[in-house]
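Researcher: I'd like a candidate sequence for this fold, 165 residues long. If you have to choose between options at a position, lean toward the conservative one.
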């Protein structure tokens, strides 16, 4: 398995990241969301221009394994993980960890004292293991369905290397 490299988002990445976004939702969230919910969620990438603008509006990093795009993270306002998605074949290989590590490091370096995320039910355990604490449960309307997620927060301090108890 190749090492994971991170680089800044480029406008030309948008179609690839939209495809990765859709694939991750379709293939990785089935235990937590039904088909209607997955389709409504994935449809957020249907407007290619709006999806590209969302990526460009944040500090977006792309993870590569070899020459293959393996995931991406978008850090909004240096304080919120707006999107963190990993290619289905890269799930469980450290790509999400590398992306999240980078987002936390950048947020802290840019003066943020905490980082928030609206974690899907699929990603909830990942963020909890990283020390993010649930703040509020949400039901988000999308198309003709509802998706559950959880607002989470992690304080970025000297001792943010692991979970808080």
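Model: Candidate sequence:
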């Amino acid at each position: 398995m190749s090492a994971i490299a991170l680089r800044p988002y480029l406008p030309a990445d948008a179609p690839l990241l939209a495809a990765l976004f859709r694939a991750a939702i379709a293939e990785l969230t089935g235990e937590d969301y039904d088909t209607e919910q997955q389709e409504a969620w994935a449809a957020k990438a249907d407007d290619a221009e709006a999806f590209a603008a969302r990526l460009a509006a944040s500090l977006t990093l792309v993870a590569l394994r070899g020459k293959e795009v393996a995931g991406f993270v978008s850090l909004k306002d240096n304080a919120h993980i707006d999107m963190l998605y990993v290619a289905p074949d890269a799930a469980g290989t450290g790509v999400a960890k590398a992306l999240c590590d980078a987002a936390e490091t950048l947020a802290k370096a840019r003066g943020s004292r905490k980082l928030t995320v609206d974690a899907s039910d699929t990603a909830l355990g990942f963020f909890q293991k990283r020390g993010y604490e649930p703040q509020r449960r949400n039901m988000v309307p999308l198309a003709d369905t509802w998706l559950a997620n959880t607002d989470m927060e992690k304080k970025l301090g000297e001792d943010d290397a692991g979970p808080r108890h």
